[in-house]
């Protein structure tokens, strides 16, 4: 089978994008692994299939029915797969790149100020374009699976990275997909961390987890006088390995650092955070209603055809 694809990335979290506008493409885990292979295939951290939400519902995924019930305009669905072929609920950088792909295909136009609502396995996501060309995504509700107790203790689990003497305390954050965030004291510790092997997480959530190592940096003040938090992060993604960026991971990192700051704060903590990742910079903002927003760039790099 000949397959048309487009390669894209968001802060170098890179994806193979496939348009399945009729909803009849059967993309197996083996197909995904071959497409994502950096030597034998096109290469990417993940594969994104753009397909009708109705087709996903017809295939029996109940989340697609819920998406259409909540937002009938969410006619396109982001079917996200990790490079190892596993299915993931959500990808923050992927939503931005999916939106750029939908615009490229003529299925959406955000330049006139409209938003795109799309379906994902974590529910409806809404995207708008900012004046500078960044895409801002309402990432929906976030949660601390460990609840108020984890928030006050600052941890609900422990992570051991290869080369560390002992496990370090970590906080679980749910962005529709699972994350476990560990604070490090210094940028040099972050730079030196060995993420070539999957970190050991205890307890490991049943569906596995993405692990973020973070270093909180000094706050700044924006031109409107609001405090802006800063975090530097590296990530080991479930189903991939270390990547150059992770959008849901950046949200988890900012939310964990904010939770830790709030636990010891005497004053207000920032609602806007800039997260530095090896592949660039993204912005995380707390929204009303327990939602969080992720903003950043999305680039389409090239298109072509491949044999599956
Ligand atoms: N890179 C993505 C997250 C992709 C899914 C993740 N590996 C998982 O299995 O949950 C992002 O930008 O959020």
From TrEMBL:
The active site is at residues 91, 246. Substrate binds at residues 13, 82, 92-93, 177, 210, 237-238, 247-248. The keyword Cell inner membrane does not apply. Pathway: Amino-acid biosynthesis; L-lysine biosynthesis via DAP pathway; DL-2,6-diaminopimelate from LL-2,6-diaminopimelate: step 1/1. It holds the Pfam family DAP_epimerase. InterPro entries: DAP_epimerase_AS, DAP_epimerase_DapF. GO terms for biological process: lysine biosynthetic process via diaminopimelate. GO terms for molecular function: diaminopimelate epimerase activity. It catalyses: (2S,6S)-2,6-diaminopimelate = meso-2,6-diaminopimelate. GO terms for cellular component: cytosol. Keywords: Amino-acid biosynthesis, Cytoplasm, Isomerase, Lysine biosynthesis. Its main location: cytoplasm. Its EC number is 5.1.1.7. The record marks 179, 237 as: Could be important to modulate the pK values of the two catalytic cysteine residues. It is found in: Cytoplasm. Catalyzes the stereoinversion of LL-2,6-diaminopimelate (L,L-DAP) to meso-diaminopimelate (meso-DAP), a precursor of L-lysine and an essential component of the bacterial peptidoglycan. Homodimer. Belongs to the diaminopimelate epimerase family. This is Diaminopimelate epimerase. It comes from Krasilnikoviella flava.
């Amino acid at each position: 089978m000949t397959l048309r694809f487009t390669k894209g990335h968001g802060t170098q979290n890179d994806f193979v994008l496939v348009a399945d506008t009729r909803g009849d493409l059967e993309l197996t885990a083996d197909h995904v692994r071959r497409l994502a292979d950096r030597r034998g295939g096109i290469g990417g951290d993940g594969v994104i299939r753009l397909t009708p939400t109705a087709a996903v519902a017809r295939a029996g995924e109940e989340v697609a029915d819920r998406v259409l019930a909540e937002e009938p305009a969410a006619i396109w669905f982001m079917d996200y797969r990790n490079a190892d072929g596993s299915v993931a609920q959500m990808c923050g950088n992927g939503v931005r790149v999916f939106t750029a792909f939908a615009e490229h295909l003529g299925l959406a136009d955000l330049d006139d100020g409209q938003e795109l609502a799309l379906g994902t396995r974590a529910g409806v996501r809404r995207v708008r374009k900012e004046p500078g060309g960044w895409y801002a995504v309402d990432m929906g509700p976030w949660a601390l699976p460990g609840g108020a107790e984890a928030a006050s203790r600052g941890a609900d689990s422990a992570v051991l990275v290869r080369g560390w003497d002992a496990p370090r305390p970590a906080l679980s954050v749910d962005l529709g997909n699972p994350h476990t965030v560990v604070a490090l004291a210094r940028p040099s510790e972050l730079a030196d961390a060995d993420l070539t092997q999957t970190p050991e997480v205890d307890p490991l959530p049943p569906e596995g987890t993405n692990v973020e190592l973070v270093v909180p940096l000094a706050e700044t003040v924006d031109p409107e006088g609001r405090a802006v938090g800063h975090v530097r992060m590296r990530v080991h993604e479930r189903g991939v390995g270390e990547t150059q960026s992770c959008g849901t991971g950046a949200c988890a990192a900012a939310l964990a650092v904010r939770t830790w700051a709030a636990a010891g704060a005497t004053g207000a903590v920032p609602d806007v955070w800039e997260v530095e990742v090896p592949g660039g910079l993204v912005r995380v903002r707390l929204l009303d209603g327990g939602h969080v927003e992720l903003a950043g760039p999305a680039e389409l790099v090239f298109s072509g055809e491949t044999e599956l």
